[in-house]
Amino acid sequence: MIDLSDIPVLDNHVHPWRASTQTVSGDHLAGEVAFSESVVASVRREFLPAAELEPSLTLFRRTNLGAHYFLKELAQFLGVEQDWSAVASARNAAAERDYRAWTGRLFEDVGLRWLLVDEGGARPRITLDELGAIAPVQMRRVARTDNFIRDLLPVEDSWPSFFRRYDEELDGAIGDGAIAFKSVIAYRTGLNIQPVSESEARADFEAHRSELEGAQKVFRDFLFCHTMDVARERGLWMHIHAAVGDPDIVYQYANPAHLYPLLHSERFRANRVVLIHGGWPWVGEAAAMVAILPNVYLDVSEGALFGMPNVRQRLMEALEACPYSKILYGADGSLPEALWIGAKRFKSVLARVMGELTDEGFCSASEARQAARMILHDNAMRLYEL
Questions:
Q1: N or C: which end of the chain has fewer CB within 10 A?
Q2: Is the pLDDT of residue 315 over 70?
Q3: What does the alpha-carbon distance between residue 188 and residue 308 come to, in Å, rounded to a whole number?
Q4: 366 CB-near residues (< 8 Å, 6+ apart)
C-alpha cells in the first residue's frame, strides 16, 4: 500500500461550525457521520416530531457502521475507552481548554491545510473570520446563493427590486472574496433546470412568491441560469449540489444526469462547474458526465463521510471514467472531528486503491502517488489558483 501520510489535504466542501460546539454530546458526535440522522435532523421544516423520531435515531446511531469506525478511531486518537461517553468527555475537555489547538491537532494528524467553506443555511451566517478563530487552516468562501433568495423573498414583493437586490448579493459575495457560488436548487425545485426569459420569471415570481419552493420553479430556474452567467463572466466557479440529501430533496430530479442538457448547452459549456457530492449514490453517472464535459469536475464529498464503509467502490467508479485530474476530495463535514475522520478514512482507502491499480499495471508507483496527491490537494490548488 502506498504511504500518503505526508500528502497535504484540501477539503473542497465543508460547512462551518460555531465556537459553541466546543462542548457536544456523544450522540452529536455519532450523528455527524450517520447519514440517516443527519438528513432528518437538518431539514428546514420538521419531518416528524423530534420526540417521535428519537428512538429511531438512537437505533440508527448504534447500527451505523461509519459511526462504529468513527468511535474506534477517535477513541484511539484520544487514548480512551471505546465508548461515546468517554470519547465525548475527553474531546470536550480538550476543546474547552483550547478549541483552536484541539482542531489544529486533528487537522495536523491528517495533513488538512485548506477548506472551501459552503456557508450552509446558518442564521446569522458564520463568517470565515469567525471560523478562523477556532480553525487554524486556510479557507475560502463558497457563497450559497439560495440563502440570498431565502432572505429576500419575505422583504421584496416586486420583481425589479428583488432581482436588483439579488444581483447586489452576488456582487457582495464576490467583493468578500468568494471563490464560487453554490446552488442547492436540487432541494428546491430539482436539477431539471430549464432556461427561461426574465418576463417568464417575473410572472412566476408575482404568482408564487409566497408559496412553497416547489411552486417557484420558473423564477428559481431563471436565477440559477443568471447566476451561472455571472459566475462565468466574473471568473467564479459554480458548485452544484448533485446528489441525495435530506428529505427536502426533490429526489426524482436529484440525479446529476438531469444537468447534462444545461451544462452541455452552448450558453453554459464554458462555465467552470463542480458537481458537489459527486452524484452520490449515482457516482458512475456523474463520473461519466465529468469525463464528457471538459469544464465539469467531480467532488467526492458526502459519500466520503456518510458512506465510509464503501469509499473504495465510489473511488473506483470515479476513476473508471474520470481522469484523476478532474477529481476533488471533500468530506461534507460540519465539525472538526468529522473533517478529520473523513480525511483519515479517504486517505487510507485511496492508498489501497492506488496500490491495487499499480499492481494491476494501470500506473507506476510514482504516478499512483502523484494521482493521490492531485485528488487530495493539487487539483483544487490548480483549479482555484490558490
A1: N
A2: yes
A3: 27
A4: none
